[in-house]
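Blinded run. Sample ID left blank on purpose so nobody reads anything into the name before looking at the predicted structure. Input follows.
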Amino acid sequence: MCTYLTEKFALEGSGKGARGWFRLNEGTVYVDHPVHAPYAHTVNIDFRNPALGASARVALELTEEDALALADAIHAAVKSAPAGLASRNQ
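Blinded prediction complete.
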């Protein structure tokens, strides 16, 4: 079952694709059919810079368990560092 529900958010960062590093400014998270992962549905996470074209994209297709583990790991890593260390205002 496709939910067609997409969470979209602005971001500032960099990603590495086939042509090297590029700036990222958009993220999306949705549950849908994967392109490559061997599952019927996955949590799909895309980091993109639409102004640079379709190749300026870093994509993840994760099981829900792995997506939640990734979210937990991100929270733990940020919480363990000094507050503001990796902030936009550093």
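Unblinding after everyone has recorded impressions. The longest strand covers residues 20-32.
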